[in-house]
Write a structure and sequence with these properties.
With 541 residues, the chain is an alpha/beta fold. It contains 17 helices and 22 strands. Helix content is 35%, strand content 21%. The chain starts with a strand and ends with a helix. 41% of the residues are buried.
Length: 541
């Protein structure tokens, strides 16, 4: 659990505000609430923009005015400087005005009496020497060096107001928050949330490249990590690096959907820098003149396809082999496939092999890791899923990930009546999203856990390649199974839980399906499946 944030994912005006928010959030308790960029209007002050308002259950309300850039005091005035200019600022006047406007707004709308409150100023980019300004004592300033300790300053300032007791009603924070929610609702839009989330996640994902630097001296390694940890992006970056070194590189994956993403990334590169081969292992097996086989036979005691695959790959000439191979979603690969890839390398000793996978996404059953001496690295953070989605899926895996994603929308659970069909209710949710909430169709995917949705069947049977191209090229809702969509994401997922294939752990399927949502998740299921989901989420580890 974590503090409630309104709006669900704030759109910050400045980097300083984002830095302040990132430092603030981990210090809050479950019962606390923070409002960011809150806009109010009253007859005296007119329009007021409050950077942050924090409701601390056991202490009161603190309002913070944030000023980025270099902050100094010239003996009379506070000065804010950046690359463009320097200007006089009045942080005390702004903070005071914001506090009293917000306090009066709340008091007019509740009957719980007085509200203990204080104002403070934050300079996230600056450490200052106390200028002895009587209007802004240093005790009211959160400096750069204090960002990770700001809660003690909040509490100290609020405790100084002991003459104003906290409301006697234990849920006063909840009441205060509800008075402000209509104001927030006027500002929240899917477009703003998605744009802000995308940039935030993109910046986190690009930090992952440091792992490739750490593993650069290893010819062979396996990076494992939870859903949303940036594995596919890392896989492409590693292939791109090796390709830039002049190596003949191949990327393989199990799912066609992941391959379509990697192919599009490859097309963005200059022609002389592109990766030599990107495709599914099944497609590669066909190019060898054989087949990787039918998935229904992968659990057989003896792999009926192994000998044919090995015989075919042994016929390759040196020119047909690769200097380096990258595999994404490596946990889906069969043991014989690793043997084939080893033989597809030009040099069995120095040939490079980079694997990326998640041993907690076994939707095709348990498949062993490749043999051999591989360096191992485990990613521990979920960068993609919102805080709400990450909390919803945390108990579905043995190694819970550290949630670093942004705040977004609450997860919705829709129970299907006994006399209704799961797919029909899921379709109703999609219609509500597009017609009422005004989400763009391209932001939504409807996934199923067992059978294909009729629209999925129609599109895939008509043209499988065109179906996958529509994921990227068309402004339409995408229909797919959970297993087919593994390794991919969309801002909004409607997960239709219509049963599970025999021999597959429902927990794995639900984890993969729910984690495909970046910002908003709607789970549609009958009562029995919903009870299963709740039991997993509430189980003690």
């Amino acid at each position: 659990m974590s503090a409630q944030v309104y709006p669900a994912n704030p759109t910050f005006r400045t980097r300083a505000e984002r830095d302040f928010f990132s430092a603030l959030l981990p210090q809050l308790g479950d019962a606390d609430v923070v409002f960011a960029n809150l806009e109010l209007t009253n007859d005296v002050e007119g329009d007021v923009e409050i950077d942050f308002a924090v409701l601390l259950k056991d202490f009161g309300l603190v309002v913070i005015e944030v000023k980025g850039g270099h902050i100094s005091h010239d003996g009379t005035n506070w000065i804010q400087s950046d690359k463009q200019s320097s200007r006089i600022i009045t942080p005390v006047a702004q903070a005071r005005r914001n506090l009293y406007t917000l306090r009066d707004f709340i008091l007019r709308k509740w009957s719980l009496g007085a509200l203990r409150c204080e104002w403070m100023v934050a300079f996230p980019d600056t450490n200052i020497v106390d200028p002895q300004d009587p209007g802004l004592p240093v005790s009211r300033i959160i400096q750069k060096k204090q960002l990770n300790l700001m809660m003690s300053s909040f509490k100290a300032n609020l405790n100084s107001q002991r003459t104003t007791p906290l409301p006697s009603f234990d849920k006063w924070v909840e009441v205060a928050a509800k008075t402000l929610l209509p104001v927030v609702a006027l500002k929240t839009s899917p477009e703003a949330v998605l744009g802000n989330n995308y940039e935030f996640i993109r910046s986190l994902t690009h930090e992952r490249e440091m792992y490739l630097e750490q593993l650069a001296e290893n010819n062979r390694y396996y990076i494992k990590g939870p859903a949303g940890s940036g594995k596919t992006w890392l896989a492409f970056m590693q292939a791109q690096r090796w390709s830039a070194e002049g190596k003949k590189v191949a990327i393989f994956a199990y799912n066609r959907g992941v391959i379509t993403y990697l192919e599009r990334k490859n097309e963005e590169l200059a022609e002389d820098q592109r990766i030599h081969h990107i495709g599914t292992f099944h497609g590669y097996a066909e190019s060898l003149g054989t087949t990787a086989g039918e998935p229904k036979h992968y659990g057989d005691p003896v792999d009926r396809y192994r000998e044919g695959l090995l015989a075919a790959v042994r016929k390759l000439t040196e020119d047909q082999k690769f200097d380096a191979i990258v595999v994404d979603e490596a946990q889906d690969f069969m043991p014989a496939w690793w043997e084939v890839l080893e033989l597809a390398l030009k040099d069995a000793t120095t040939g490079k092999l980079a694997l990326f996978g998640d041993d907690q996404q076994m939707v095709f059953g348990d498949r062993p890791d490749p043999r051999g001496n591989l360096a191992h690295l485990r990613l521990l953070e979920n960068l993609r899923n919102s805080q709400q989605i990450a909390a919803a899926i945390g108990n579905f895996i043995e190694r819970p990930a550290i949630a670093r994603g942004p705040h977004a929308f609450e997860v919705e659970y829709v129970i299907v009546p006994e006399d209704e069909k799961v797919f029909d209710i899921a379709d109703d949710q999609v219609a509500h999203l597009t017609d009422i909430e005004k989400w763009e169709p391209r932001e939504i995917a409807l996934l199923t856990t067992e059978r294909r949705h009729e629209e999925h069947k129609r599109r895939a049977l008509a043209d499988r390649v065109e179906h996958w191209d529509s994921l990227w090229n068309e402004d339409s809702v995408f229909y797919c199974s959970v297993s087919g969509f593994k390794g991919l994401e969309r801002p909004v997922i409607v997960l239709a839980v219509d049963g599970f294939h025999e021999g597959v752990d429902p927990k794995d399927v639900l984890y993969v399906g729910m984690s495909r949502a970046r910002d908003k998740l709607i789970v549609v299921a009958r009562q029995q499946e919903m009870d299963l989901i709740r039991s997993i989420q509430n189980a003690e580890k």
